[in-house]
Amino acid sequence: MTAVLEARHLSKWYGNVLGLSDVSLALEPGITGLLGPNGAGKSTLMKLLTGQMKPNLGQALVRGERVWNNIPLFRDIGFCPEADAFYEEISGWEFLTALVRLHGIGRAEAAERAEKALGFVELLADKDRRIRGYSRGMRQRLKIAQAIAHDPAIIILDEPLSGLDPLGKRKVIHLIRDYGREGRTVLVSSHVLPEIEAMTLRVVLIHQGKIFAAGDIPYIRDLIEKHPHQISVRCDRPRDLAARFVGEECVLNMSFGPEGRSLLLETFKRDVVFGRLPGIILETGIRVEEITSPDDNLQAVFDYLVGK
Amino acid sequence: MSPGDDARKGWIRRSAGRVLGFFFFLGRRAKKTRVFVLIGLLPVIQAAAIKTSELGRQAPAGEGLAIFSNFLMIFYLQFFLVILTLFYGTSVASEETEGRTLPFLQTRPLSKPGIVLGKYAAYSLLTSLIVLVSLLASFLILAGGRLGSGAAWGIFLRSAAVLLLGVLSYTAFFTFLGVLMKRSLFVGLIFGFGWESVISFFPGSTQRFSIVHYLKSLLPSGPRGRFSFLMFRLEPTRPALALLALVLITAAFLGLAGLLFRWKEYLAED
Amino acid sequence: MATIREQGYSHWDGRLIERKRPWWPLTTLGIRLIFRKKNFRLLFALSFIPAVVYLVGIYASERMEDFKFMVRGSAQLLKIDPAFFKSYFTLDPLLFLMVMLMVFACAGLISDDLKHNALQLYFARPLGKRDYLLGKSAIIAFFVLLLTLIPGLVLIIFKLVFAGSFGLVRSYPWLPLAVIGDSLLLTVFFVCYTLLLSALSRNRRYVMVMLFTVYLGTDIAYAIMHSIFKNPYFALLSIKANLQQAGAVLFGQRPPHAFPAGLSFGVILAFCLIAAWILQRRVRGVEVIK
User: Fold this and answer.
1) ipTM of this model?
2) What CATH class does A5-222 carry?
3) Chain B interface, mutation test: which of C39, C112, C197, C209, most B Cβ atoms within 10 Å?
4) pLDDT-derived band of residue A2, with 50, 70 and 90 as boundaries?
5) Taking the CB of residue B56, how many other CB atoms lie within 10 A of it?
């Protein structure tokens, strides 16, 4: 199948700062998750693929054509930007209908499409309110609405789930999955693995402007599973807690925090440790202030994968 | 002309048309437009004050028109017009980059020169309306008993035409400035109130390196009498040439703005 | 139990102290951010040109023999007296430069905070509205006083040094007070003027235009009305004329316009009071949008 979105040796500098380094990617119809920590280059890649920026080296192609200043391509592209910016003095309805009409769609049809999109993101009741009065979640939903209202075949969404409540996230995830099933090309970025996981199995990992892993999620998970997890427990008697865990097979390694008020456990079986922990706490009467997983984030995963 | 050129021109035209509609609507809604309309009432209030004082004394015939042709034209030509066109002209590019709304336009099937042209047209239309309504109200008050006279309306129509040309040419220049640089407003203030004022004191052809020179060259030769500040040190260009110069200035700066906007990439201001 | 302002996600183990001037960090940060703008430094340097010119004038006044060829018949121009200082403080270019500084550097003081909803962040800290406005005012006061009070006092000091005597202050003992008084008048006015316009919009570019427009527009309105009616009272319309009228009185000089200078003080005072009232209403932690 020919690639719909393609990056060929894409590189982008912001002055002396490297935003993207020799990125090559070919995305076919379906959903692709773009996963990376903040500052990894996800937005840069998306802006290059949507023709908002010119690459310094390489090419950004949509359906085999360079996207920069290629106007006809934009009929079929819908983009949801990450930035929270609008024309604040008009209502959601006016904003959406105007943007749909910028596609050359007639007034009546634009109204119909806007209504459908607003209905989907559950903003119909507030459509006549000025955007300046919208909450964070409403603004995010409006951004998604303007990306889908003109029914594009290619949808690029930059952190679409940020600011949404769990129900809102669920709805958007279902929409994206529907689009994938219809054969549209969707590129979604996030720094939260479970969100991407809920939408698609196909992910691209980006870090420091480079693609260093691309493939199915099980493959990524496998890489992560081989790397031990850390659990930190901040309490009043860390040594007593350590004494209870020292005999547990699931614990690989233990150490104490620098101030001696926390215990750091390393394990391959995180779920087992979390299962044992409440019981031990109740039995010993230890006063726990905080339980965290210091490495349960994409940065740690990437550090591990990059180090590998 | 190649099919490609035709297609490109078609895109520019269509894009400009769509963008014009949207931004004219946005501009009408904006609070700042209302403030500028209020500022435009200043000469109307002055005209009313002047007319009221005329009722109490024997004003020489034609004085109202002389005041209109000279004093109020100073307000419009050397202040109000420049302020309005500076603000709206530089906004064409700056408000999208500063407001981070540029992606909404860039990711639509709109030609970039068409976006510039469309916004330029929308803001020029808005500015023209603000200026002309104010000008008409001032004229109606000051012309008073001479409204039946063709000569009086001739002065008004010519003044209005000059101001319209001013709107088009200044907005085009400031649009180019806004596309070219970040601190366009500041540079525009220096140009509009520094260069344009100072240049009139220079002799010979130096005056021709300003927009206001050509506008003043087109002003009607109405009654002046003791009021002739507007034409101070003016070495006018022939009207036909002045008109041509203004059209060329407008076309050139708009063209450059469109080309530059197409070529440049804008990074969001953080 | 710690007050709500002292609670946070990151626990700092140091002692929280009550600042005598909670607005001070606002001022220092604001000034630092303004100086970071490249082109501002050039404009700020240029705005000292009038002070340098007047300093040269003071030098020349003590070296009249050397400069006789330049000031032939105009020796009166270089008489260093309150009129000399009044002419500096009411100089058209100086007032214009101060407006340009406000346009370039201070237009976004409140409007940027409104745009980014930062007022909630400020007022979630032990900082009241008064402190917030004081902090912002101090930024403007810093720049205005650097162009008025400091050069004014420096000119007096240099005159005393070049003259080698205290003749100036013996003849006009109230002169330093006049310098301080007019500097404060200009400072209070520009603080109220700039903060008022900055608080009226979330768009910094629009505020920049309005700062310039209102200053210039009032002057043009006065010029037009005065040229037609020849009535000096129209000068009350002009910001510049009122500042010059008040300045002349403070330096014991004849006011430039033929009407009681008290009216100009009244106009300036009324403007500042209205500005303060509007600022109290506009600067709010929470904005209700209907």
Assistant:
1) 0.86
2) alpha beta
3) C209
4) confident
5) 7
